Amino acid sequence: MSPLPEDSQTSVISTAPAAQSNHTSSSGSASLPTATVSPGSAGFLNTPTFPILTLSTEILVKISEECDDSDLPNMRLVCREFCNSSTKAFGQVYFADLHVLLVEPSLDILVEITAHPIYGRCVKTIVCGTARTIKPVMEYDEEEGEPIPTLSPEFERSEGNIAMLVTALNNLKHHGNLEVALGIHSDEAWTKGNGFRLLGGPITYDGYAVKDFDASGTLGSLLEATSATMFPINKKCFRFLEELELDRIIKNDTIFSSMFSAAGTFNTNTSIRLDFVQWSSSGPSSIMIGISDSNQLDLTNVLLAGEISAVLGSPYYTSSYIRILKLALDLTKFEHLTLTDMAIDTSVFQTVFAKSEGSIKHLKLSNVITSESVPGQGDPTEVLCYLKDQLQLESLTLDRIEITKQIDNGLQSTNISIDHLIEGEKGFDGHTEVQEALEKLISRANSWF
Questions:
Q1: Of the ranges 121-130, 166-175, 350-359, 408-417, which one carries the lowest mean pLDDT score?
Q2: 363 lies in a domain?
Q3: Which of 153, 202, 213, 361 is deepest in the core (most CB within 10 A)?
Q4: CA 101, CA 134: separation in Å to the nearest integer?
């Protein structure tokens, strides 16, 4: 089990048997309170009583909930009472986000976790790996040596993978846990179950190099299992798919319509999260597109500046994640828009969201750099003016925003953070308050430049 970025952890269910290990505290040893020992009848001693164990179960549970994630395994080793009281907190941390491979040992563990009366209720996400053939890393650069299939032909032909997924989903239904996000992942190509990793080298997973992927086949197995169990697939998760994989999904009409669109509209009654790997001259970076059932669109690290306006308008552009984004924007009127870790200019922003101008009511910008459409010639407050004049916003949240002005024909730039322009919280509610805040920012920014 490895830590996952943000506020959760991932259990990577690999083909290897689960290993047990001893855990020690950060200080190297645990210091327990002195036991109270009283003489018993017939010369025997009573069982030692630790003061903390006289507390109610509710308080012990609260203690476990307040512990650091890394301390929970140690707590479960203290005694039976602490093990029992920390079981739910342990499950919420370590079994909420499960990565599995469609092989028997991995699916065995998935079935065991989902069958557990407590851990089964803690599961929030199950994503199936798309890797199909692997080779030991030592042979990665060698031509000789046959790839090792991660999914045995016999197991696949007997539909054993589907049968075990059916068992796991039925376990979740038995617990009443129907809000689990289901999907696929190929992040084993870039990580060890530890979030996105900006490192080079061979694409490895548990000591093996991935040689082939099958996103469509993996999704097909998952969809068959959900159909057989009538498990609602209202939340979908696609993690770090390569463009080739997503492109295959897009070209498979049956799978694409099931996962993304139906009857000519985007599935706004579902939640979809897509993570991608984007390559550039500076190396790989991660992209996230999130679409929720509340008509909310979340974009992270998606390029919305430069030449993307021409890209979006070109039928020859083949970037799969941009095609998914364009489809979503064409078919859905989003009311909530969140942009994180991005650079935007007015012309591109207007091109991308032209059909959504009338529907966007709530906007959140976090770690965003704004710039003129034409470097060195436009107004540095263009983006703010666009938000004020073209969007009918009911709420606006700004966090770490920089306004940039290009000088010397774009060879240099100067910028200012809005923290220097307006004090206090940067959250504004109500159309009038939003308009007043934007007018103040525009005026002060123009004065500063």
A1: 408-417
A2: no
A3: 213
A4: 12
Rounded Cα distance, 385 and 325, in Å: 25
Any domain includes 152? yes
239 vs 360: which has the higher pLDDT: 360
Q: Which two tokens stand for residue 436?
A: 């007043």
| Encoded amino acid at 402, one letter | E
- Residue 88: domain span: 1-16+52-259
171: Cβ contacts below 8 Å, ≥ 6 apart: 111, 114, 115, 120
φ/ψ (deg, to 5) at 195: 80, -175
For the chain, helix, strand, coil in percent to 5 are: 40, 25, 35
Give residue-wise pLDDT tens across range 63-79. 766 677 676 666 666 66
Complete DSSP assignment for 330-358:
HH---SEEEEEEEEEEHHHHHHHTGGGTT
**Structural domain contains residue 408:** no
Instruction: Name the domain count of the chain.
Output: 1
What is the CB neighbour count within 10 angstroms for residue 371?
Answer: 25
Quick one: CA dihedral 280, 281, 284, 288, positive or negative? negative
User: What is the C-alpha separation between 47 and 199, in angstroms, rounded?
Assistant: 54
Rounded Cα gap, residues 78 and 119, in angstroms: 20
Tens digit of each residue's pLDDT (9 = 90 or more) over 92-125: 877 888 888 887 888 888 999 999 998 899 899 8
| Measured distance CA(71)–CA(23) in Å, rounded | 9
Closest CA to 360 of 269, 439, 297: 297
Would you say residue 225 has pLDDT above 70?
A: yes
Element of type H or E holding 83 = helix 80-85
Kindly give the pairing relationship between strand 271-280 and strand 235-241: parallel
In one letter, which amino acid is 289? I
Assess contact for 181 and 237: CB atoms under 8 A: yes
For residues 94 and 73, what is the distance between their CA atoms, to the nearest angstrom?
10
pTM of the predicted model, to two decimals? 0.59
Position 11 in a domain = yes
| Ramachandran quadrant class, 263 (left: phi over 0; alpha: psi -120 to 50; beta: rest) | left
Whether the CB-CB separation of 67 and 92 falls below 8 Å is answered with: no
